[in-house]
């Protein structure tokens, strides 16, 4: 018996965990000062737009230089999240720097699914789902998290972020899958060998051969961050399996030309060290399966090469539409989709990262808990010096103008989008701590849902009502007739009538049409309608704007879209009917609300694509062998400028059957003249309506300049209300050894900055109990004992069900104040009665 106890004690010395899954790496970020504390109110009086006068973005990919450049005063902010422990500690210890933490970045392995043979006749092992699936067991995620990322990451297996609510909601399913796909290189090797032999490959003297040639893999390895070491680690594993691996080290821009822009069948790459940043807290990740695993995700050639299993494809599409009747049905669908995603594995998820956004100590800005600084919707509204209004800031960023900017199918790179968002003014803005949307250019919304549909509301700027049926009015627009250039009504397409699961009535601000684009022209209703026309036009094979890469997304949209109707023009009120739902009514409104795009700038792109000179999407540009359209730089700009000159001469009115009724008599002339003046002064055609405007673009020098838009309608301090996010900090305590037949009691302390976390601020504390085989034995909810203290008691029969051995109690805590769940775990041993006795 003494030997058993000693063995268990040794195990516990190694295995006991009482930690949150987010590493503790330093003191939490300081609370941003209020306006009264940081800025003289007199300096704010009458100021519109940004709180700074100018922001200069410069290319800087070396994170090791961040602290020094801020200390020297040449830079004030860096956009790239820092995940290097060395750089982080240097940043944390400097008197001249500050940082903010975010949790929405993930590293993964993107695999080329084309094949089984590529264009040159070479074998692509990753065409086979079973081989892709086996990589999950080959890779040691804990090694990546702890050794490569230095503890600033946690292992990730699934398309669900471990930092978002759905992971906590599905914790039991997630943990079972993580145990099933735990590091087991022998099992991975066995599957890979069997599948390769089935493809006709031969394993000779430790080397794989196919048609008398070694099986060669091209690894695209990003160089700017820890992914270089991740790529080398995975390349080493594949070489150990008998593959020849060619390592191609590339920057973001260099790699994108291959993994995004090229046809996967061309064989320019086999695996890529990918990374994704979620720019807002996703309270509902049901559409992750469609985005990451099906052609509906994006228009690029890689996505169009995805061929998910029929069951997975159908389930992903249903989850994207939220085609479920109850919450329980939704959870069952999500659980099944997670298992199918692992079997598909065109992406092998590796880790969720903890990133630090670096800034000078005298700079404050609202940072999103998921997207950090680069993903924050509020950064252009809140960026400021703590002691003054105005001034210039210099941002360092690893990528600039990585892909072309256009408002239809342009760049999706985070550092491009960061600048783009600053030039745009959305209708709703996500709360950086909860992910719930708040009004920006709408007055409010009324959401009506079909009775029994699981939709809830948190904030009071909108209302939610239910109805037994929601009929769609006959006059609502539901389709498009390209030949006639007009919308098709519900009455025409569905004479018998149709219903919808939801209706959203959006009421825009009464002063909406008094606001202006950056070129000085006023917003108009045509700015809302033309983007809707393009949604349908690009899906019509008879249109010159048809884009086959747009079809999967459009077909998914058509399955839930039931029409929209302009109820009032001024003030603008629009009804949108759809069968797609989200658990949060705030998200439904944000997803449905039509947003404006300057119709005159958009028209230039339509004219250029109609003539086969440019294309909105990379996929169509590749097929037509023309330039992917950019409104800001490169060979596209002179082409668009030529169309602008012609539009000025002709007073071009796009889709006159619809838009003539929405355009003022002189509006086209005034719009084109304003855009012409803008282009003559700045050399680009990018027009927005946000707090910052695109002043100048310098691709060769590697810089972009944004300036304050003085014509912005809101006071500059409107969004300076967000303080430090109250992320719960957990401390789980309990026995290390429990005798079978006894009860076991565990105590959880929940705090924030050392103070007890208010009980009303906690939404849920759930626990999962796993036995030594990794089987889920029990789940339940902890009992509150007052502010900051929770109790989990396992009765004697619950302990007995574990048998003897090492067990794990895992907790997931969700807060009402932040959307990020917190986790803790505790390992303990169960022993036979009297098992804790030892010889004297």
Secondary structure layout plus pairing:
Layout: H1 2-15, H2 35-38, H3 41-44, E1 54-59, H4 66-72, E2 77-78, H5 85-93, E3 97-111, H6 129-138, H7 141-148, E4 153-155, H8 165-169, H9 171-180, H10 185-198, E5 202-204, E6 207-210, E7 213-214, E8 216-222, H11 227-240, E9 244-250, H12 252-259, E10 271-277, H13 288-293, H14 301-304, H15 310-321, H16 327-344, E11 347-360, E12 363-364, H17 379-382, E13 384-385, E14 392-397, H18 414-422, E15 428-430, E16 437-439, E17 442-450, E18 462-467, E19 477-481, E20 486-489, H19 490-493, E21 502-508, H20 526-537, H21 551-560, E22 561-569, E23 572-578, H22 585-592, H23 599-610, E24 614-615, H24 618-624, E25 627-628, H25 636-650, H26 656-659, H27 667-682, E26 692-698, E27 703-708, E28 729-733, E29 737-739, E30 744-752, E31 755-756, E32 762-770, E33 776-781, E34 783-786, E35 789-794, H28 796-800, E36 805-815, E37 822-831
Parallel strand pairs: 1-14, 2-14, 8-9, 8-10, 17-18, 24-25, 29-37
Antiparallel strand pairs: 1-27, 3-10, 3-11, 4-11, 5-6, 6-7, 12-13, 15-16, 17-21, 19-20, 21-23, 22-23, 26-27, 28-30, 30-31, 30-35, 32-33, 32-36, 34-35, 36-37
